[in-house]
Amino acid sequence: MNVDSSLMVTTTLPVRGDVSCARSHVSNLKDVLRAYGEGDLFGEPYGEGPVRVVWLHGWGRRGQDFAAAATTLAEGGVASVALDLPGFGATPPPAVAGGARHYADLVAPALAAMGDAPLVLVGHSFGGRVATVLAATRPELVRALVLTGVPLLGPTASVRSPLVYRATRWLHRRGLLSDRRLEAARQQYGSTDYRHARGVMREVLVVVVNEGYESELARVAAPVTMVWGDEDHEVSIDVATRAATFLSGRHTLRRLAGVGHLVPTEAPRELAAVVREALA
Q1: Are 236 and 260 in contact (CB under 8 A)?
Q2: Which domains does the chain have, with CATH numbers?
Q3: pLDDT digits (tens, 9 = 90+) for 190-240
């Protein structure tokens, strides 16, 4: 879907310096995790009053990535929750493997229970995939969407594994190589995330990296702000530009000069400022 260019505003934000750790939480529940949803999804609350913002972290990360940004908002009177997605931080892995669409189903009940008003969802990388699906499929829960470093587009071409690895898998399927030899090959030829993943989380990762969210982007009605580091070498800003062509509603792309993929920890003040605008 092509979008009228007048709908998209691109700006570059100066970065005022990194914040390596959050100041003391405004909430009197300092450093305490709470259970959400059906009691098996954990997150850290920030601030007092009704929750207005939910933070969703990237693959291999946890909600604590947003501590500095969430604390900044809490000091301004905005309460939020930084969730640990299933399989990360304090939250146990999902019972069955699934991609961002499955994760959206797991997270939606927790969002619905947080209050009567729709929320601003902030998603980094994998968390942004989940947030995008939620905005498309549960629009009543989402007031606005803030995305950063999110691989929103499906793979454009199939990249074949090395011949040695393909041969190893072929021999393993036929019972000619042990599980130990197969795992050794996975450790040698798999991506860093794949090598570190275990059990069901490895299956989740395989599903996720083969997903695309073009259809969900086309269905998002909430305002969308994309916040991208111009030195993000994991998910380039070109991905954000191309993904924006699928959006039919109001959307903006903000570039952060000198910032890489980890915007929540590299530029938390700038991220908090964008979230505050989304709440206005």
Answers
A1: no
A2: 5-154+211-279 (3.40.50.1820), 158-201 (no CATH)
A3: 566 666 667 889 899 989 988 999 999 999 999 999 999 999 999 999 999
